[in-house]
Write a structure and sequence with these properties.
- The protein is an alpha/beta fold.
- The chain is built from seven helices and six strands; from the N terminus they run H-E-H-E-H-E-H-H-E-H-E-E-H.
- The chain is globular, with a radius of gyration of 25 Å.
- The termini are far apart.
- The relative contact order is 0.15.
């Protein structure tokens, strides 16, 4: 091969490689533009010792309202009453048990919203709820809660049965996680959903049900802003 032909061959080869690179980049860009955005999910955690009862009903109202506000958002209710998990020990290795997959769900970027519900126990959240939150330490240290939207639900045996003390406790814990706290929106506008358990039902509590619905709507409003 003469020197002239060798140079022409190298030039053509370079042009072919460059063209392939441009086509590949263009294809990658087109693929990125056409790719669907990741799923967005709100997880609801029921800290009641009784699965499927009034606390679960309140959380379902939150999720239904969120879904109505934005049908593209996925929702899931998790009942802690059916899960056997160990206590966290500060400064020690965290347990690896049935709660671990749930914590992984919360850790996932797809989880953009978290709402925790608890009944009132002497003005405090249930022991199951507190034990659950205590397992957040590794996630907190990793910063995975940052800018997730958080909501709280409380159920008591009276209209003024201590629900707001539960909301305050849950929100105080959540603020250490760098979450965005959602309150129930107008016209109720309190610290979250406050529900009244009457004969193991919340059906008669129209005001309380409205707070749960407003909370779900407000969570979606904040999620929309946070995900922009």
């Amino acid at each position: 091969m003469t020197e002239t032909k060798r140079r022409e061959f190298l030039r053509n080869a370079a042009l072919t490689v460059t063209g392939a690179g441009i086509l590949a980049s263009t294809a990658a860009a087109a693929s990125a533009l056409s790719a669907k955005p990741g799923a967005r999910r709100i997880l609801a955690i029921n800290g009641s010792h009784r699965a499927g009862m009034t606390c679960a009903a309140g959380l379902k109202l939150v999720l239904e309202s969120a879904k109505a506000a934005d049908p593209s958002i996925e929702t899931e209710l998790i009942e802690l009453a059916g899960i056997d998990f160990n206590q966290a020990v500060v400064g020690a290795d965290q347990p690896d048990d049935a709660l671990t997959p749930i914590l992984e769900k919360i850790k996932s970027p797809e989880c953009v919203g978290l709402v925790i519900g608890s009944p009132v126990y002497f003005g405090l959240p249930s022991g199951r709820t507190v034990s659950f939150i205590s397992r957040f330490m590794p996630l907190k240290r990793a910063g995975v809660f940052k800018n997730k939207v958080f909501g709280a639900v409380a159920v008591g045996g009276g209209r003024n049965g201590g629900q707001e003390t539960i909301l305050h406790a849950l929100i105080n814990s959540a603020l250490t996680l760098q979450v965005i706290v959602a309150v129930d929106g107008v016209p109720t506008s309190h610290w979250g959903a406050t529900l009244w358990n009457q004969d193991n039902s919340i059906e008669k509590d129209d005001f309380g049900k409205d707070t749960a619905k407003n909370l779900g709507t407000r969570m979606v409003e904040l999620i929309t802003m946070a995900c922009k």
